[in-house]
């Protein structure tokens, strides 16, 4: 039976049928979390805006819900869906991706040591180094997770949690998840994998032994750049840590609204077709950019020239729809290319149906490690000829 947070729930039969593990993931993604409304027969789930739920004259709750911050039907449906799709046993949804990491860190025992990938999304690093390292009794160490000897050395000191992301944002480094998980477990540490970029359709960290999977559902899961959210999925919800994270979710309250959850679940149902179109486009764009005379380097795990191409081919079903490239000529040329785009949006964020480009080093601030001539591309579902034509005219004009 699925679990929501640390509570066992009995979803309607139809919800369970959508989650039938014998079906293909591309089928399950359409139906996961959906059920026919037993009162109205509505096929599309209603949005339950009520913040509170009634009791009968004897004081018993009429349904399984008490108060919307603690749980509500739309969040429950999304949590059931995400747990199913990641192959986990339970999921918890939060107000954003970083709120998800924040809740995880809040739940760690005082004195815990956390190792994190040196190339993680800069917001995740900022949360650990700028907020938690100063305020909580936690210690953090950045490790280049591509370098397993560096990881071994760091794990020689007692570690509670290893936080990995693969491919990394925005350099597209690929981390050998099997090697990191095996080493961390041998040292007694848990492993959290940020699976936002690949999604459960392209990479399955829990099946590789990871303990927790994190998503910024803002990105591919919701898929339309119109809702912010996050989720954490557990392989083993019996662990005390999971109970504490669930407690932080309900008690600290960084939860998504019912409408956010509804939008996210609606977006999720088209993930497989969106992602297929996006990866098809990204593969073409990466190959085209790699041959362009004004492009110095393309970072895309699908290219045979990518240093971790073989690892990506082993642990990802396809190389994803994110890529970055470095233009010849430095910061002003990169700014010029971005300025010349007419179709591809100039905006941060990723994973939506519209292609977006970003001069990443400008967004990350003074402590950025990102090369100044790097442009990150979130490839959308437009026709690849139009995307290539837009990049061609922007590169030629810069
Ligand atoms: N993880 C990754 C890999 C991301 O790229 C991002 C945002 O870009 C986040 C987490 C944070 O997500 P959110 O903006 O929903 O807090």
Verbal overview:
The protein has 15 helices and 14 strands. It has 398 residues and is of the alpha/beta class. The chain folds into two domains: 3-268, Aspartate Aminotransferase, domain 2 (3-Layer(aba) Sandwich), CATH 3.40.640; 271-397, Aspartate Aminotransferase, domain 1 (Alpha-Beta Complex), CATH 3.90.1150.10. β6, α7 and β7 (190-194) form a beta-alpha-beta unit. α3 (73-86) runs parallel beside α10 (258-268), α4 runs parallel beside α5 and α4 crosses α9 (240-252). Residues 1-17 have low confidence and may be disordered. Residues 96-98, 121, 123-124, 165, 169, 194, 196-197, 216, 218, 228, 230 line the site of pyridoxal-5'-phosphate (PLP).
CATH first level of the largest domain: which class?
A: Alpha Beta
N-to-C span: 57 Å
Number of helices: 15
CATH superfamily of the largest domain: Type I PLP-dependent aspartate aminotransferase-like (Major domain)
The largest sheet has its strands arranged as: 2-1-3-9-8-7-6-4-5
Please name the CATH topology of the largest domain: Aspartate Aminotransferase, domain 2
Number of domains: 2
Return the structural class.
Answer: alpha/beta
Q: How does the major sheet shape up?
A: 9 strands, mixed
Looking at the overall shape, the CATH architecture of the largest domain is: 3-Layer(aba) Sandwich
Mean pLDDT: 94
Could you list the spans in which at least 5 consecutive residues all have pLDDT below 50?
Answer: 1-17
Q: How many beta-strand runs?
A: 14
Rough outline = globular
Molecules bound to protein: pyridoxal-5'-phosphate
């Amino acid at each position: 039976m699925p679990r929501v947070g640390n509570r066992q729930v009995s979803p309607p039969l139809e919800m369970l049928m959508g989650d039938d593990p014998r079906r293909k993931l591309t089928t399950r993604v359409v139906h996961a979390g959906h059920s026919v409304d037993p009162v109205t027969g509505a096929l599309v789930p209603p949005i339950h805006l009520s913040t509170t739920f009634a009791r009968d004259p004897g004081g018993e709750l009429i349904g399984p819900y008490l108060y919307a911050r603690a749980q509500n039907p739309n969040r429950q449906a999304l949590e059931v869906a995400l747990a199913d799709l990641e192959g986990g046993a339970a999921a918890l949804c939060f107000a954003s991706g970083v709120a998800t990491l924040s809740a995880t860190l809040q739940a760690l025992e005082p004195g815990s040591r956390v190792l994190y990938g040196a190339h993680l999304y800069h917001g995740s690093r900022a949360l650990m180094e700028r907020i938690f390292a100063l305020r909580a009794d936690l210690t953090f160490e950045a490790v280049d997770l591509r370098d397993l000897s560096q990881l071994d050395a760091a794990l020689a000191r007692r570690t509670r949690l290893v936080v990995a992301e693969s491919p990394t944002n925005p350099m597209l480094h690929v981390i050998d998840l099997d090697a990191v998980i095996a080493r961390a477990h041998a040292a007694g540490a848990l492993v959290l994998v940020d699976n936002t970029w690949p999604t459960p359709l392209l990479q399955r960290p829990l099946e590789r032994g990871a303990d927790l999977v994190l998503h910024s559902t803002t990105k591919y899961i919701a898929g339309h750049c119109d809702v912010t959210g996050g989720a954490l999925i557990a392989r083993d919800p019996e662990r005390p840590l999971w109970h504490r994270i669930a407690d932080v979710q309900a008690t600290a309250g960084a939860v998504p609204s019912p409408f956010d959850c509804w939008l996210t679940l609606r977006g999720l149902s088209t993930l497989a077709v969106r992602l297929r179109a996006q990866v098809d486009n990204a593969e073409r764009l990466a190959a085209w950019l790699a041959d362009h005379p004004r492009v110095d380097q393309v970072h895309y795990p699908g290219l045979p020239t990518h240093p971790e191409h073989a690892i990506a081919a082993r642990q990802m079903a396809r190389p994803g729809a994110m890529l970055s490239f470095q233009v010849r000529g430095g910061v002003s040329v990169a700014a010029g290319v971005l300025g010349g785009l007419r179709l591809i949006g100039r905006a941060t964020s990723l994973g939506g149906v519209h292609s977006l480009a970003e001069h990443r080093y400008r967004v990350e601030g003074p402590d950025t490690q990102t090369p100044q001539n790097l442009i990150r591309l979130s490839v959308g579902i437009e026709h690849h000829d139009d995307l290539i034509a837009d990049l061609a005219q922007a590169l030629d004009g810069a």
